[in-house]
Amino acid sequence: MKHFPIFLAVEGRRIVLSGGGDAAMAKLRLLMKTEAHLTVIADDIADDIRKWADQGKLRIIERAMEPGDALCAALFYAANEDDAEDARVSAIANTEGALVNIVDNLADSQFITPAIVDRDPVTVAIGTEGAAPVLARAIKADLEARLPTQLGVLARIGKTFRHAVEVLPMGRKRRDFWSAFYFNNGPKAIEDKGEAGVIPALETLLDDHITTTAKDGHVDLVGAGPGDPELLTLKARNALDKADVVIHDRLVTGEILELARREAIIIDAGKTGFGPSMKQADIDALIVQHALDGHHVVRLKAGDPTVFGRLDEEIEAIEAHDISYRVIPGITAASAAVANIGQSLTKRGRNSAVRLITGHDTKGYADHDWNALAQPGEVAAIYMGKKSARFIQGRLLMHGADPATPVTIIENVSRADQQIIATTLAELEPTLTRADLQGPAITFYGLAPRDAVAHSHQIKEFA
Ligand code: SAH
């Protein structure tokens, strides 16, 4: 970019032009749109320019330019259509501190005047650095046709109304209001009633937007449970009923998403296209952005959002923007899975504590108090434990756990394709590798399925 486009404040400032013929008139037509003080200096002045002077639009000095004529001028135009004279006058203007433009002489000009589409106060300036004036004209013609002629009037009146629109929450609500005004209600008001119709139209439009659509954004962080829609809480169902936007995890089932309001926008935050999972920071930003737009956002997470759900990161992002939120708990995979093998997570005389552990953390395989876990009677529900199974098995055996300790793996808990695999610590691998599970799976260390379950042929053999 050899020329930097800016909008120069010229209200009340001097713009001086040397020349009185056609080139001068062409520039003056543009310059008269500004609120600058215009001075035209030439010993031969066209009639139109005299007329404009009579109308008070500019001042004439009827002689050749002299030193001192361009003092305090912001801009100076040399429009004599005579190279020698233009060079002489621009040298004067230059020493007097004005920015100089020589008509049709790009090389010696300090600035150029763009092609302009004028919908004051909306102004579009088009420049090609002198390379393609034809192109600039074509773009200008295109924009002239595209931008409603009343756009300027609407923008001017709209500006006086901006304060009133602050009752609408920032973001989507305000954008919706203004685009309805500029492209719909505003032009229509001018057409029907002229400029006088614009303010009443703005008032009506604002009332409509306040009563029908004004609401603050809100986020519900909702547990979707393990997959069976009947394991949703009533609160979760109600939230889905109200959602404008649902942002869900990969593990949330289609059956549950079906329950969302018809008009809701459903966003899969578990996958972006065919690529890898979305980054947590991007998910946080997505939630915040939709809430700031005034939406009721349901952030739908598998199981319970408070269990390995990266809930706190999302809450922090939401709180940072002062957005209201609530956490709606869900049934975590361990609860649903243990119910389906007919056992309890805790049992008098067996284990008075249960651990929910993860096979993975941000650094890779997660470390735990293996020594404590290796004691008889200990129970742990292992989330995200498929890849780390061999590691966990190795650690527990190394710390003296009984190789015969029961281990139960439940895949696709509560779904039609649920599978239960009963094994032992010694057999965890290779059993898991042989089973080649594709769905989410939870592993219970220290729990075997109750006999009744075992006898109902639900259990798969992979040993
Ligand atoms: N917040 C979730 C856990 C998210 S971590 C919850 O409370 O359940 C993801 C892990 O959860 C999976 O790797 C798997 O171990 C477990 N999981 C989630 N849904 C499951 C399901 N339907 N069946 C089996 N395991 C599940």
TrEMBL record:
Annotated metabolic or biological route of this protein: Porphyrin-containing compound metabolism; siroheme biosynthesis; sirohydrochlorin from precorrin-2: step 1/1; Porphyrin-containing compound metabolism; siroheme biosynthesis; precorrin-2 from uroporphyrinogen III: step 1/1
Pfam families: CysG_dimeriser, NAD_binding_7, TP_methylase
SUPFAM superfamilies: NAD(P)-binding Rossmann-fold domains, Siroheme synthase middle domains-like, Tetrapyrrole methylase
The UniProt record lists the keyword S-adenosyl-L-methionine: yes
Molecular-function annotations in GO: NAD binding; precorrin-2 dehydrogenase activity; sirohydrochlorin ferrochelatase activity; uroporphyrin-III C-methyltransferase activity
Residues the record marks as active site: D249 (proton acceptor), K271 (proton donor)
Tetrapyrrole methylase domain mapped to chain residues: 221-428
Domain Sirohaem synthase dimerisation: 151-206
Keywords: Cobalamin biosynthesis, Lyase, Methyltransferase, Multifunctional enzyme, NAD, Oxidoreductase, Porphyrin biosynthesis, S-adenosyl-L-methionine, Transferase
UniProt keyword Coiled coil, yes or no: no
Catalytic reaction annotation: precorrin-2 + NAD(+) = sirohydrochlorin + NADH + 2 H(+)
Enzyme Commission number(s) from the entry: 1.3.1.76, 2.1.1.107, 4.99.1.4
Family from the record: Belongs to the precorrin methyltransferase family.
PANTHER family with a match to the protein in the record: S-ADENOSYL-L-METHIONINE-DEPENDENT UROPORPHYRINOGEN III METHYLTRANSFERASE, CHLOROPLASTIC, SIROHEME SYNTHASE-RELATED
Protein name in the entry: Siroheme synthase CysG
UniProt source species: Yoonia rhodophyticola
